[in-house]
Amino acid sequence: MNNIKRQLHQLCVEVVQQRMNAAQMAIAEAQQAANDDTKSSAGDKYETGREMAQQETNRNLTQLNEANKLMVALNQIGTSGKSATAEAGSVVITNNGKFYLSISAGTLNLNNETYFAISPASPIGIKMKACKKGDEFILNGKSYKIEEII
């Protein structure tokens, strides 16, 4: 069962790495565009182009920073052991889906099963935290019953 946790953890790492790579690529492209923009007789056009490239670089630096924070959070999550209550690193099986309490990484597919990677700080993560097998909670009018915690 811990193998599932390790595999889900690895899928989350891959999602974050893809985000980091995309941000780094976009930063490089924006910097290249700024460098390629040659000064023309219309000086304002040159400055506007450079400013737009700088804004794009700044946006992507923010995304890269957020991805780095997610990677740090992932590195703090254990992938071994089993807990009686839902906590960071737990796989929580409910009657309404399977959840990996880690980071917000969306839908993960593993062995033809769908898992939702959610943050412990998300609304559903908050409801799940400290719950144990058999506990129930309601979120947005939907009832969840915890069937298993891995």
Topology at a glance:
Elements lengths: L1 H35 L6 H33 L15 E4 L2 E5 L4 E5 L2 E6 L4 H6 L7 E4 L2 E8 L1
Parallel strand pairs: 2-4
Antiparallel strand pairs: 1-2, 1-6, 3-4, 5-6
Give structural attributes.
3 helices, 2 domains, six-stranded mixed beta sheet, 6 strands, 150 residues, alpha+beta
Q: Can you give a write-up of this model?
A:
The chain has 150 residues and is α+β, with helices and mostly antiparallel strands. It has 2 domains: 2-75; 91-149, no CATH class. Helices cover 49% and strands 21% of the residues. It has helices at residues 2-36, 43-75, 123-128; strands at residues 91-94, 97-101, 106-110, 113-118, 136-139, 142-149. A 6-stranded mixed sheet has the order 3-4-2-1-6-5. Strand 3 and strand 4 form a beta hairpin. The longest helix is centred in the N-terminal third of the chain and has 35 residues, at 2-36. It is elongated, with a radius of gyration of 21 Å. The relative contact order is 0.17. The mean pLDDT is 91.
The termini sit apart by 7 Å
Helix content: 40-55%
**What is the N-to-C succession of helices and strands?**
HHEEEEHEE
**Which structural class is indicated by helix and strand composition?**
alpha+beta
Helical segment count: 3
Radius of gyration: 21 Å
The number of distinct structural domains comes to 2
Q: List how many beta strands DSSP finds.
A: 6
Query: In what range is the share of β-strand residues?
Result: 15-25%
Major beta sheet summary = 6 strands, mixed
Poorly predicted spans: none
Mean pLDDT: 91
How are strands sequenced across the largest beta sheet?
3-4-2-1-6-5
Per the principal axes of the C-alpha atoms, what is the gross shape?
A: elongated
